[in-house]
Amino acid sequence: MACAKQMVIKETEKEIKNLLKKAIPFIGQRLRVLLILKQNEESGISKRDVAKLAMVDPNSVQKWRALYLNAGIEGLMKHQKTGFKPSVFNQIEHNKLETILNNPQNGLQGYVELKDWIEKESNKIFSYNTLLFYCIRNFKSSVKVARKSHVKKDEEKGDFFKKISDEFVKK
């Protein structure tokens, strides 16, 4: 069986704990591992024991230990994760979508027509699912909307029809 690897860690326990308080969660795991390694610096500790104490995978401990040895604390705390992806829709397109979705007289039959409309308006191509989930997330829209009547219905003709039918019913 292999011997536990002994490491020399330059930072004090207090410095590591201060960094741990300020760190984001996945960097915190790395610092917890480093703290355990610092506490067992003289006697040495195996990667499996560190993994059990820190509740992480032993291969992660091995990677982080090598990262610390090669790049120091800066390398251990650095990450390549980017933030959220920027939105496909800019503010102008968002406003156009909001106005057409909130207009009860828009006459759109579904997201396919909405997709065609926004592509024509913005001269960009969007995928159906991108538009669908964007509208659901931002405007609380749904795939199917029950409508009481046709959106292009002439209200005056409807009122006239109601007057005539009321006359026949009364007689």
Can you describe what's shown?
The chain has helices at 13-22, 25-39, 47-54, 58-77, 91-102, 111-122, 128-139, 155-170. The protein has 171 residues and is mostly helical. It contains eight helices and no strands. The chain folds into two domains: 13-77, no CATH class; 91-170, no CATH class.
Element layout with pairings:
Elements: H1 13-22, H2 25-39, H3 47-54, H4 58-77, H5 91-102, H6 111-122, H7 128-139, H8 155-170
Helix pairs in contact: 1-2, 2-3, 2-4, 3-4
Distance between the termini: 104 Å
Strand content: under 5%
Mass-distribution shape: rod-shaped
Cα-based radius of gyration, to the nearest Å:
32 Å
Report the strand count: 0
Percent in helix? 55-70%
Continuous helix count = 8
Task: Profile the largest sheet.
Answer: none
User: Mean pLDDT score, rounded?
Assistant: 84
Low-pLDDT residue intervals, each spanning 5 or more residues: none
> Helix/strand-derived class?
mainly alpha
| Tally of discrete structural domains | 2
Task: List SSEs in N-to-C order.
Answer: HHHHHHHH
